[in-house]
């Protein structure tokens, strides 16, 4: 967890986002400007060092009858999203422009896509009943058809097992099992980056902490915390508020000692978006990890990974690994 003050140049004290964000949104309030960005994207080749597009080609692609109007809007985009190369005689997208167009291409905030509850070939880790996935509001839900899942403390979804922010483009040309596998890869990458102290959304610093229920009922959905597990790790970006909540039982999969431990026992911890079996295997590993609350004040959690031998990791109150022994 980072304790130092944020650079004053970010303007955090001026509001939730700051004047630069307001200016950026204002620049996008034009269909012509968005068309220009998409025209530059169409010409973009990630495998070349020169993606300069001459104005004449931008004008043709925008399909506008007023060259002066297109030039005006292109000038407004310069600096923030577009870079002009006078010596090359053209324009190209800056990294900020690329990120914006990729968000549009992915469907974030553009497409209203839904997937009704669809059964997949994966049983509930708690009751071994069938599970289903569904998609709404840019989130892929995984739920059990019979039990309460992990608990409904922070969701109104019955049988809740997980909820993963997932772009609509991720649903294209994939079976339900493949969608589930791809969303799991996305979720684990997000958590790993946050666990490593880097926000995957904005590259900002991350605050992390362990939370534990002081009077946890381990028999099921605890009436005090509403969760199945007594301990969980919480992460939040200090800049963009990107966040995630997960169990330390899953965090150990990112530690080199555990990866090496499993490798020594010929078990792969790798998960792939095109391999549904890898999802079942890795979730089986996480389910088998043993977790013990060693201390409440300050919080200390020990997670054990057992094969013929055992490796143990201890997490402190900041959800950081402070001890490893095997």
TrEMBL record:
Q: Which residues form the DUF7351 domain?
A: 121-321
> What residues does the DUF7347 domain cover?
23-104
InterPro entries cross-referenced by the UniProt entry: DUF7347, DUF7351
Pfam families membership: DUF7347, DUF7351
Organism domain of life: Archaea
Q: What is this protein called?
A: Uncharacterized protein
Organism of derivation: Halomarina oriensis
Instruction: Cite the source lineage.
Output: Archaea, Methanobacteriati, Methanobacteriota, Stenosarchaea group, Halobacteria
């Amino acid at each position: 967890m980072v304790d130092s003050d944020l650079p004053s140049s970010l303007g955090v004290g001026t509001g939730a986002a700051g004047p630069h964000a307001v200016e950026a949104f204002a620049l996008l309030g034009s269909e012509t400007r968005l068309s220009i960005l998409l025209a530059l994207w169409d010409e973009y080749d990630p495998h070349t060092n020169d993606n300069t597009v001459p104005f004449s080609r931008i004008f043709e692609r925008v399909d506008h009858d007023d060259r002066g109007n297109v030039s005006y809007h292109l000038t407004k985009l310069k600096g923030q999203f577009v870079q002009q190369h006078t010596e090359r005689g053209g324009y190209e997208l800056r990294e900020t422009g690329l990120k914006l167009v990729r968000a549009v291409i992915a469907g974030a905030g553009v497409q209203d896509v839904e997937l009704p509850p669809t059964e997949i070939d994966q049983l509930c880790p708690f009751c071994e009943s069938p599970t289903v996935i569904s998609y709404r509001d840019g989130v892929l839900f995984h739920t059990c058809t019979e039990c309460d899942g992990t608990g409904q403390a922070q969701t109104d979804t019955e049988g809740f097992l997980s909820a993963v922010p997932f772009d609509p483009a991720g649903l294209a040309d994939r079976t339900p099992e493949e969608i589930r596998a791809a969303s799991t890869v996305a979720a684990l990458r997000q958590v790993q980056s946050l666990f490593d102290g880097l926000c995957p959304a904005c590259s900002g610093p991350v605050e992390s902490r362990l939370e534990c229920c002081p009077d946890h009922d381990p028999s099921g959905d605890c009436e005090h915390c509403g969760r199945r597990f007594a301990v969980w790790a919480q992460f939040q970006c200090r800049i963009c508020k990107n966040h995630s909540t997960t169990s330390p039982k899953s965090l150990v999969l990112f530690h080199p000692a555990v990866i090496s431990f499993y490798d020594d026992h010929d078990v792969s911890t790798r998960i792939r978006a095109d391999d549904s079996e890898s999802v079942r295997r890795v979730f089986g590993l996480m389910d088998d990890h043993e977790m013990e609350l060693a201390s409440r004040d300050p919080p200390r959690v020990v997670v054990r990974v057992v094969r013929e031998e055992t490796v143990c990791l201890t997490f402190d109150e900041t959800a950081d690994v402070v001890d490893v022994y095997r």
